[in-house]
Design a protein that fits this description.
4 helices, single chain, 202 residues, alpha+beta, three-stranded antiparallel β-sheet, five-stranded mixed β-sheet
Length: 202
């Protein structure tokens, strides 16, 4: 038989919960935040359709400056935007001066290739493709390159990352810790990253 919580303790628990001092019920712990929508990238190919306006339909590739050019409204900046954002922006631009209640549909028909280079002591060095609308960890990238070679130094993996401002940083990562759960870091890969796995010093 389960013990009954005394009434005064029950009231105290309710007060603490209302103050945010106790964690949520275990039943709520399985809830997860929705995954972030895919952010449009340069070289993604989009299909823009305007309902009952076939002359405005276009297939356009996002430029390296994160923009597209559409009839009547000209250049549309899509930096940091997802498909839903793009639909809203294009709709508002057409609605502002040209159309009454336009209905715009945006579809990604070709994703820009996103790759990571994995070099050094792995079994199949070369480019690794990051699947669309997903993330890839350092360990995933190495696994897709055939895994560590027998002579690999797993504790001294170097990740070279180039940022949008042209700045380059090198990071030394203990991949062994990542594999055995000794680190809480995931080391998510970014397009253009270079991973170098050195050989062990014998």
């Amino acid at each position: 038989m389960r013990p009954v919580l005394p009434y005064y303790l029950f009231r105290l628990a309710l007060c603490l919960a209302g103050a945010g001092l106790v964690p949520p019920l275990a039943a709520d712990s399985g809830a997860r935040a929705p995954a972030k929508a895919y952010e449009l990238q340069p070289l993604d190919l989009l299909k823009i359709q305007v309902f009952q306006e076939p002359d405005l339909d276009r297939e356009v590739r996002i430029s390296k400056t994160n923009s597209i050019t559409l009839p009547l409204i000209g250049v549309v900046d899509l930096k940091g935007r997802n498909v839903s954002d793009a639909e809203k922006i294009v709709t508002e631009l057409y609605k502002r001066d040209f159309l009454v209640n336009p209905q715009v549909n945006v579809t990604i028909i070709e994703y820009a290739p996103r790759t990571v280079n994995v070099l050094g002591a792995v079994n199949a060095p070369g480019q690794v493709l990051i699947p669309p609308e997903t993330t890839m960890t350092l360990i995933d990238a190495i696994s897709r390159s055939g895994g560590f070679a027998r002579i690999a130094s797993r504790g001294r993996v170097v990740v070279t990352r180039t940022f949008s401002d042209g700045r380059t940083e090198n990071y030394t990562v203990n991949a062994e810790d990542l594999m055995v759960g000794g680190s809480t870091e995931q080391w998510l890969m970014m397009p253009g990253d270079v991973v170098f796995v050195p050989e062990r010093i014998l």
